[in-house]
Amino acid sequence: MILLRPIAALGSAVLAMLAAVGRVALFAAQTISHLLRPPFYFKEFGQALITIGYFSLPVVGLTAIFTGAALALQIYEGGSRFNAESVVPSIVAIGMVRELGPVLGGLMVAARVASSIAAEIGTMKVTEQIDALVTLSTHPMKYLTVPRVLAATLAVPVLVGVGDAIGIMGGYLVGVNRLGLNSAAYLSNTVDFLEFWDVASGLIKGAVFGFIVALMGCYYGMNSGRGAQGVGRATKAAVVAASVMILASNYLLTELFFSA
């Protein structure tokens, strides 16, 4: 019996993980089903769009410009070992729009938005405001979850697109002013090597990441424990879950889009 205890502990952990995955999947399915049915709360959607999209722009922009600048320095240093400094513009552009722009943008939005949503909805649950919505014949998922999920799904691709442009600009500024690359040649190589599907794949990733961020924030907020500690745990869990799911889904989408 003693020898079976580690196996039993592992089995119960796996079952708990599968149960959690099932609950999240059911919550996602319910959210999608409510997206397709009225009523629609356009005021809540508009407020969520501004909060998630517009107010996240500064942190996404700062992350992108420093990432593009650092990427240009690293690629130049590595390329100089093989006399391949000319690849800096193309690799910076492709790396930003395919991977770094969507992933870092999604993680920054997860840190800012998932925590905010989980804390807001968790506080509403603790103070019984969600119960008040039910007494007013307002479905909590339609009023709280659907507008935020839809807003994040639409706003994050726009943030990713802006972040891509700012990141490429950061690489351009470092490449031209710090590394001495020719300005016209840098812009020409960026345009010539960047293809439509490179940009489109990053925007699709952004939409998926936005859905994940808002979904995790709403899920953990709706399932928050009682009291300040319960809200704190829900906030932390929302950010961690959203970040891990963004990294995992990024690999799956990259495999789907670019596998040979």
Walk me through the structure.
The protein is mainly α and 260 residues long. The protein has one domain (59-253). Helix content is 85%, strand content 0%. The protein contains 9 helices and no strands. Helix 3 packs parallel to helix 6, helix 4 (88-126) runs antiparallel to helix 6 (140-178) and helix 4 (88-126) crosses helix 7 (183-193). The longest helix is centred in the middle third of the chain and has 39 residues, at 88-126. It is globular, with a radius of gyration of 22 Å. The protein starts with a helix and ends with a helix.
List keywords for this structure.
260 residues, mainly alpha, 9 helices
Topology:
Blueprint (H helix, E strand, L loop, with lengths): L3 H32 L6 H11 L4 H24 L7 H39 L2 H7 L4 H39 L4 H11 L2 H27 L4 H32 L2
Helix pairs in contact: 1-6, 2-6, 3-4, 3-6, 4-6, 4-7, 4-8, 4-9, 6-8, 8-9
